[in-house]
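Deliverable D5.2: sample structural annotation.
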Amino acid sequence: MWKIVTNLRALITRATPAVTMATYNEGDIVSIHSDHISEVHTMPIKHLIRPFPSELSEEKVLSLMETIQDEKLRHNVPPIDVMWVKGRNGGDYYYSFGGCHRYEAHMRLKKDFIDVKLVKSTVESLRPYLGAATPDLR
């Protein structure tokens, strides 16, 4: 277990731009929620619902911004997990709780799109995150 956590930390921790970045390879454990999902989507960032404020390390955000801007290194940034919830009338809702540094880096770079792994979910699986504030999704 510790080896997986260490590998995960190496994948998403960007201490300084001078540190060599780990490469995201097929088969690496990146997320307990979406590791079984291989399909990566590029979606409009404006469609993400982020209900909680992020606690950020400025160094990580700046390092990720450099990586995202570098065509040769961009693939090193793993996609973020997004809970895809269908409303009772068929509406699509995309909730993002993690990937705070990656999301912020994309926002500061004024990117319109972000790579995601969609985790099909239900309103019931959203409730533990939002509690009584869970909206009536239509």
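Annotation notes: The two ends are 40 Å apart (CA to CA). The CA atoms of residues 13 and 84 lie 26 Å apart.
The annotation will be released with the project's public dataset once the embargo ends.
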